[in-house]
Amino acid sequence: MKERAILLDMLVDRVRSLLSEERYEEAAMLLEGLHPADVAEIFEELDEDEQTLLLQHMDPGVSADVLEELHEEEAAELAEELPDDMLTAIVDEMEPDEAADLLREMPEERRQRILAELEDPDEVRPLLRHPDESAGGLMTTEFLALRRRMTVADALEAVRQLAPSADPDNIFYIYVVDQYGRLVGVVSLYDLIRAEPYELIGDVMDRDVISVRSDVDREEAAAVFAHYDLLSLPVVDEDGRLVGIITSDDILDVLEEEATEDIQRLGGSEPLDKPYLDTSPFEVMRKRVGWLLLLFVTASLTGTVMKLFQGDLSRHIELTYFIPLLIGTGGNAGSQTTATIIRALAIGEVDLRDALSVLWHEMRVGLLLGLVMALVGVLRALTWGTPFPVAEAVATALILLILWATSVGAVMPLIMSRLGIDPAVVSGPFMSTLVDATGLFIYLQTARLILG
Amino acid sequence: MKERAILLDMLVDRVRSLLSEERYEEAAMLLEGLHPADVAEIFEELDEDEQTLLLQHMDPGVSADVLEELHEEEAAELAEELPDDMLTAIVDEMEPDEAADLLREMPEERRQRILAELEDPDEVRPLLRHPDESAGGLMTTEFLALRRRMTVADALEAVRQLAPSADPDNIFYIYVVDQYGRLVGVVSLYDLIRAEPYELIGDVMDRDVISVRSDVDREEAAAVFAHYDLLSLPVVDEDGRLVGIITSDDILDVLEEEATEDIQRLGGSEPLDKPYLDTSPFEVMRKRVGWLLLLFVTASLTGTVMKLFQGDLSRHIELTYFIPLLIGTGGNAGSQTTATIIRALAIGEVDLRDALSVLWHEMRVGLLLGLVMALVGVLRALTWGTPFPVAEAVATALILLILWATSVGAVMPLIMSRLGIDPAVVSGPFMSTLVDATGLFIYLQTARLILG
Question: A244 to chain B nearest CA, in Å?
């Protein structure tokens, strides 16, 4: 991909210099021959003034493609800079679901102005009723639905009659509805080509059509899509009427965004709303400061625990040497567990019904890890010249502590999931914070019991 | 999805009891009507003996579908339990790329035996030459390729002549090759239906066909697929000859697996090779113990740093109270940064060319976080009754430490990426380990300078 990166850089420079020389048409023309995904990538390297200039000079169809590829928030910021008539021309060329996403980000007044001017506002308007996070917010109204009584020849003719602007990737499957508009089957273009022209759609269609309700969470829609290896997923309303379809590009975006959110949460940050480099340092700070502040609470709890065992610590000063090691081990063992469990929950490898199996699994893992670490800990302590009873206390504490950390790490994400909270909030920093003081308590209590 | 989970549970129980009563045919029949993805899900709840019994009694076509849906390692373990003739019948029904994945996991001798018995070994054999992690290892040989000189009518006839066993989802696009087999264009079924029967494929095809070389990493193939919103991606050899296609279900699997690996690495564990609950506790322990052991090294480094500043610590005993807080803050700030940067690298939001922007971004974030934490730290220290110069040292150290942690957190994944190592190895535990001793040094050195 190296050659590609160099090429993109050159194109960015060329567009920049054309724009600075006010040769706007040439800059726009340079981009219009490329794939929209590549134009969007070049776009992201430009600053907002340059982007606005280009959008004003490119063909509305190309501008529409580019806005579709950009992150929603970025597209909305650019849209703000465009006059109404230009924006309307672009939105007219966008796919209905992408147009709805963009309109959702606008102030109410402007949204209504643009909607009133659109060529076909009825394609977009119903989509605006669905929340962004639902299957309805993900679907497009651009699909083909036929009736059972039609023949294969009629169906092929219907495909031929579609407007040239229709996106072929949305028409690989044709959905079949009854007289009330309820989804009753699906037939692929492949099936149509292979069927005899006089056959009825009702006879060649597949009745086992998988669909989701428009009000399910978009994450659930993505899970269904991936589970059944679909290429498009029909969306129905509460009465089973077909209202839209979700296409695979939207699913890829959802899966990518959800994994990004989980990873950012696991790292101890609230998910960012925009791509990283487009998020201001102040905004990034705001997303991260929460977990860092929480540490102040733990730090005082740790202090409280240490005060509780002041006597033991001053009698066996060697115990203190192992505090950072013990605390660190607990936090790390906990983070390892939560990362694994959170991901297993996200991809459906485990669910709440597996809670006991997961706990039992992690307890065995914790015991094994504890035994290995205890062995290494004893060797370490003895080579440091630590008295044997202290080494014994450290080893026992390591086993108990790791067992505790893996168990808490297994249970916390499951509890969050049960409460309907994203399990990924049980981040690494959360676990360190949780295990620090409790782990210290386990360590010192063990030491007190062993050292008497 | 709750009703669905209950339903699946009931089916699992029913299959179990039928199997225990040796009513194998009925158990197999119960499953044969379901979607393969659901059969696979039920399968995963059964133990290995039950799974083997079912595979022996189900229709080979259904067994093939189920093995395709299972994780490769699980499918291979089940295949071990089946006699050669039964396994051959199942592999015959599998898609070529899935068959190759399964054969790759077998011992050489058995692989050759099965290959020799297959109905169409030439569909599978070329796929075995490609490593599992490459685009070639992901592709299937089941695709339709036509010549430019053919008419649209010929092309439609070719679609009609395909074996009924062909997977329609692989045939939405038809690829066009020249006399040397080199990929020169693509045409969709949609285009074929809309074109006139006498038109030439060379005239209706799209010449801008995006492809990847068979030897690129499968992660790169997935990135191209997602970048261009494709539904299938043709794979070519070093001479540009079409050798296979990658379908979207494989891409979804790759993206899911790669995100899972990244998340497990970020949590401080080596990626697991199998689904979590199917990985033995011993294996899970082995994947995690590395980072935990590394802490022993840091712990001694931390001890060394503390010895270095023994004098200062005994003169200003209040300094010690803040050690856990300072170390924890550094580790957490570092993990927050690496999680964000690693993900941004993985989804292409940033690349090596952005190294300086990323560093500059994180330094500003670090400064802001440092200022907030310093303010809170000073307030905290003063309410604890800490002497003002110590509070000043803590505040200054917090700023420097967080700045250090975010900078290191930004740079480390970029360095790994530059060295061709997966940036996700810069996990939370790695960062804590790295920042612990250095952070302590920064803190105590700052204190020494301020307190004199």
Answer: 19
